[in-house]
Design goal:
two-stranded antiparallel sheet; globular
Length: 138
């Protein structure tokens, strides 16, 4: 990979720039939505299976689904990131390929990690707002 990984908390405009996308281009916006949809499906798989929890979450926190990003093990996140890449649509695969890199022991993908983290962030922030305003998620 010619680029260093992008921080998962980086702004969307930085991500678009790194991927050569334009926020003003409707086709690029459609690609962005597809990547968000693929990540959201991965988020749903991750956050519904208690086998994906960290040991701490399982033994101390004892959370209920849907699980939050910080309650999930890095192994489970890594596995799901690679699964998202493997199941990528033809439209998104080229962008995921841009995010692929190899560490000394693993294949990684910063593009999918960014989308997956943001899908959790969006869902978890939305859920927190609904709880705090009394809407209970509706």
């Amino acid at each position: 990979m010619s680029q260093t990984p992008l921080a998962q908390s980086a702004d969307r405009s930085v991500l678009f720039h790194r991927l050569g996308l334009s926020e003003q281009n409707p086709n690029d916006q459609a690609i962005h939505r597809l990547m968000l949809e693929e990540a959201s499906r991965g988020r749903d798989r991750l956050s519904s299976n208690n086998a994906n929890l960290t040991v701490y979450s399982m033994t101390v926190v004892n959370p209920v689904p849907p699980y939050k990003w910080d309650q999930l093990s890095e192994t489970a996140k890594h596995r799901e990131i690679l699964d998202i890449v493997r199941a990528a649509s033809p439209q998104t695969r080229r962008y995921y390929d841009m995010g692929r890199y190899i560490t000394q022991v693993n294949e990684e993908n910063w593009v999918v990690r960014w989308y997956l983290w943001h899908s959790f962030r969006y869902r978890d922030n939305r859920d927190n707002r609904n709880r705090s305003n009394g809407n209970g998620g509706t």
